Amino acid sequence: MLFGRNKKNPIKIADKGIVKWNYSTCGYCSTGCAIEIGTNKDGKPVGARGVADADVNRGKLCVKGIFEHEVFESTGRGTTPLMRNNIQDEYQEAQWDDALGTMASEIKRIQDTYGRDAFAIVSTGQILTEGFYTLGKLARGVIGTNNYDGNTTLCMASAVSGYKRSFGSDGPPGCYEDFEHTDCLIAWGSNLPEQHPIIYWRFKEAQEKRHFPLIVIDPRVTMLAQNADMHLAITPGTDVVLMNALMHVILDEGLEDQDYIKANTNGFEALSAEVRNYDPTTAAGICGIDEDTIRHVARLYANAGVAMNIWTMGINQSTHGSDGVVGINNLSLLTGNVGKKGGTSLSITGQCNAMGTREWSSCSGLPGYRLLENAQDREDIGKYWGVDPEFFPKTRGLTQTDIFPAIETGKIKGLWLVGTNPMTSMPNTARIRKTLEKLELCVVQDSYLDVETTEYAHIYLPTAIWAEKEGVFTNTERRVNIIRKVKEPYAQSKTDLHIFNGLAKQFEQGRKMTFSDNFDEVFDEMRELSKGRLVDISGMTHDLIEQHRGIQWPYTEEQANKGEAPVQGGKRLYTEDATFRFADGKAKLIPLPFIDNNERPDPEYPFWLNSGRLVEHFHSRTRTGKIGNNNKYSPTPFMEINPDAAMEQGIQHQSYVRLVSRRGDAVVMAMLTHRVPRNMVFIPFHFFDCVNRLTLGLLDPYSRQPAFKQSAVRIESVNQAEAAQLNKESRAF
Ligand code: SF4
């Protein structure tokens, strides 16, 4: 007899007493899932669910989104502003007015003493776009430092730079719907199931219906590679060589789209001349992919009706990051795969609002993809804000990765960190620690007091988290979606908008300008400034965005007035001939000579060090490290090592080892797996005092993004009991 065969025993879902579902957009990754947070009769967030009629996620959420209601009251939240004179002193609680007043007077002292650019600002990809826009107005129009950047330099700068070099502007041209039309997909350094699980689900659903080939290019057998038709385990840092070789075959065999090239591009001859140097035999010796496979992939890709490329950090976080993006764009342009259904070059963005900062924060220019280098742009924004255009710098200042060396050399004396945690996220932790200790003023603005960088701050400003405020995010496919307020800010924390506006009022120039606390009014300013720009959002309103579960830009006032549904807005960019953002409307094909400049394994440091994400965690675990159902599945920093290499080194599964690089060392648990080749170890990047103690982080010359994924290490044995104790103490929140 089969036990219980006739008895129904359905799973009982606990009644959490939810009385209201509040619409929002997930605050972790750039997929941009529409989410509803359930609150009980006391207004407490107690549940989360995906929004069924939202096109992005169609009711689904990943393991982070499902538990996102727990972030509001997770441990470590900051409750009140804190101040101290020296970083060796204890923090003292402060009133908001005092904290902002002291911050403003210290900024003025530093700028009066050392010059305007001696005070730097590093922001994030996590706050709402209305906050980004307002911070840009404050930084560019009031404080006037040119050393202002976002932490997106650590993740998306190469994509931005590559898009600008190829297409004349930032802005991913494709969308998730392209999965439903493509005939071939190449994923470069992108592990969708762990990094962007719901984009993976969109891809997988489309692929199961139409069975188009998936080719994954990654040195590691990632989860996506395990599900691929072909996995090309490339030698780290050599993507450009493989791209050139693929183009070599495409041109050699006449598989390019000459009509598209003639109508839409410049630079074909120079590119052809360069890729002639990369025949598959020569390229195979550098990139580690055999010549037959190179030829096969080139034919598969170029002969597909429409084909798409996607990429993430495996391309961006490299000394050739910007070139890698240009190389992908070259491939797409040569085969006419831009602006078509299923034919695109789509950067999969990192943080939930990395796109919002790119569009509106003024980090690398002025709002709405305007340039500091363009006199008309300076004039337009100066007039709109009520700022003398001469007050704006005429070229972009330092990026985040150049700001820290400028602190070392004494050029920068004050630093304001907004929602970013360089002690965990920047390469070479030991160097960052010493750098932060040199500052005369360090301000950390964060929702969490226990982020590692607060140890080096003089002023700490607690901020409202995600859905304790209202505003918009833009996701990977340019979809603007809204975050509605679920509850009031925690304890005495304030919204970013409130903090930026409060600080602006401390400056004479700020008092002359308009700084609104009303997020609708701020959005209206952005809409006005977007008119006629690539990033035109003038047809959107906050209510319309919620009604449509997000709207892709561009969506213009004209379209809205004509009654065009927002879905006809901006699914794709560059859909017509000659609509790229250079003066003649044509994109650039750019030759990419390969220069091998990475730190590489050698007899002293014989392993490549690779790093990446885990599905359970987000960035430096500030949030997911405190949520049981995220942290309990990945509580320990570990190292993947190939079993053959482990045997040679005498390393047991789940034993502790010490990894040593030229920068420092880190103790991790060994996990034996064939995911990594024999000469490579992989460590998740989320943990403090771990992988970034080892990384070198050489910078890309165009984007200034660090090469997190290409360093060399050796492995040493360690006392197991001491390592276990160290691990227990240092990982506990
Ligand atoms: Fe949130 Fe990204 Fe997961 Fe969607 S895929 S629920 S946006 S973390």
Task: Describe this entry's structure for a reader.
There is one protein chain. This protein is of the alpha/beta class. It folds into four domains: 20-71, ADC-like domains (N-terminal domain of TfIIb, Single Sheet); 82-153 and 378-517, Rossmann fold (3-Layer(aba) Sandwich); 173-347, Dimethylsulfoxide Reductase, domain 2 (3-Layer(aba) Sandwich); 607-730, Beta Barrel (Barwin-like endoglucanases). 33% of the residues lie in helices and 16% in strands. The chain is built from 27 helices and 26 strands. The strands form six sheets. Strands 5-4-16-15-14-6-7 form a seven-stranded mixed sheet, with helices on both faces. Strands 21-25-22-24-23-26 form a six-stranded mixed barrel. Strand 17 and strand 18 form a beta hairpin. Helix 8 (239-252) packs antiparallel against helix 11 (280-287) and helix 8 (239-252) runs parallel beside helix 14. The two termini are 50 Å apart. The model has no long low-confidence stretch (mean pLDDT 94). The protein binds iron/sulfur cluster.
